[in-house]
Amino acid sequence: MKVVTAEVITIGDEILFGQITDTNTQWMGVELSLIGVKTIRKSSVGDVREEILRVLKEAQERADIVLITGGLGPTKDDITKHTLCEYFGTSLAIHPDALEAVDTFFRKRGRELSDINRQQAALPLNATYIPNTRGTAPGMWFDHEGTVFVSLPGVPFEMKGLMTDEILPRLKQRFTLPVIHHRVIRTVGIGESFLAEKIAAWEDALPPHIRLAYLPSMGMVKLRLTATGTSLAALKEETEQLVQDILPVIQPFVFGYDGEEFEEVIAALLKASGQTISAAESCTGGYVAHLLTKIPGSSAYFQGGVISYANEIKEQTLGVRPETLAKYGAVSEETIREMAEGIRTRFHTWFGLATSGIAGPDGGTPEKPVGTVWIAVSTPERTLTRKLTLGGDRQQNIHLSAIYLLNLLRKVLLQEE
C-alpha cells in the first residue's frame, strides 16, 4: 500500500518572530498519524508573497497533502487567500454560503457585518468551501495536479474544529490509507545510549513494518513503536508481544506506557498505598512539591513541605543537628538523611523526601562541584539516600534532582528498593 504523505505549512510573521507559539503543527501531526497519513515536513513562512509561493511549490513536489494554517484574516497583512489565487491561477469571489455563515456569525452576537468582515466570504473560485462553525474564516480545499491543498485558519480552536469535523473525514474518503498503530514505552533513570545498548538485539530483530524511535527528555526516554499495516487488531497484538519480549531487559526503568505521565504514575501509586508524604527541599526550591501537587486529588497524600534553603531552617524546622552541618556540610549524606527523617516526623507522614545540592552555576568546590546533589526517601522503617553527579546547568539540575528523587520513591512504593 502506498504511503500517503503530508506537509504542514504555517503562515505568519508572528510565528517567525516568536510572538506566538506554533502548537498547530504538533497537533496536526498527531491527528494525521492516527488516520494513517505520514507527515514528512513542517515549515513556517512569513507574510511574504514570494516565500509563500515558493514553499507551496516545494510542498507540492514532496507531498500528497499540503495543510496550510494562518493568514486568513480580513486585514491587509493577511495575504494567504490572494497568494493562493495566484498559485492556482484564479481570483477571489464572494461565496454565497460563506457570506451567509459570516453574516449569521455576527448577527448572533448582535453585530452588523462590516465591509471588511464581508471579505471573509471571498474565496478563490476553484476552492471547495469548508464551513467554519467556530469562527469567520472558512476552510478551503483545492485538488491541484494530484495534490490536495487545504487552507485553514491559524487560531488553534478553529483549526482543530475544522480538522476534526471536516478535513480528516474528507481525507479518509479521498485516500486509501494504511492503519498506523503507536505503542510507547516510557522509561526513567537511564540514558538514551545506555538504553539503546540494552535493547540492540531486540531492535535489530524488529520486522520491516514496525519502526522504533527514541524520544529523550530530561531524565526520561520514550520508546515509540510505530506499526503499519491493514489490520489494527493484528498490529496491536504484534506490538504488545514485542513489548512483553523486551520488558524483562528494561523493566526496572519502565514507569508507564503511551500517554501516562510520570507524575500521574507517582500519584496513582501514592493513592494506592494509602500513605501520606511530605518534602524538605533545598536545591530544588519547591519543585518536588510542585510535581507532587500538580495532579488533581493530591491532597489525599501530600501533607506539605519546607524549602529549607538556609542552614538555620534545616536546624530549626527540620531538626538537622548543628554538628552534622558543621562536620559534613549541607550537601552530604548525613544531612540529607536528617532532613528526610525530620520532615517525616514533624509532618507526621509515612514518607519524607529531601533534596540538598549545588544547583549552580556557582557555589561548587573541588570536593563538591556544581551538580553534586543528595536525595533521600525516608519511611518509619528505613531511609534511602542517593548521591547524584549532574551537570552545570541550574534548571536542568533542579529538574533532574526532582525526577530522580520521585523515581526513587516509585521504586520504594513498588518495593523494588
Automatic annotation (TrEMBL):
- List, alphabetically, the Pfam families matched: CinA, CinA_KH, MoCF_biosynth
Q: Which InterPro entries match?
A: CinA, CinA-like_C, CinA_C, CinA_KH, Competence-induced_CinA, MoaB/Mog-like_dom_sf, MoaB/Mog_dom
* SUPFAM superfamilies linked: CinA-like, Molybdenum cofactor biosynthesis proteins
Domain MoaB/Mog: residue ranges: 7-174
Q: Which CDD domains match?
A: cinA
The text of the family note is:
Belongs to the CinA family.
HAMAP family under this entry? Answer: CinA_B (MF_00226_B)
Q: What is this protein called?
A: CinA-like protein
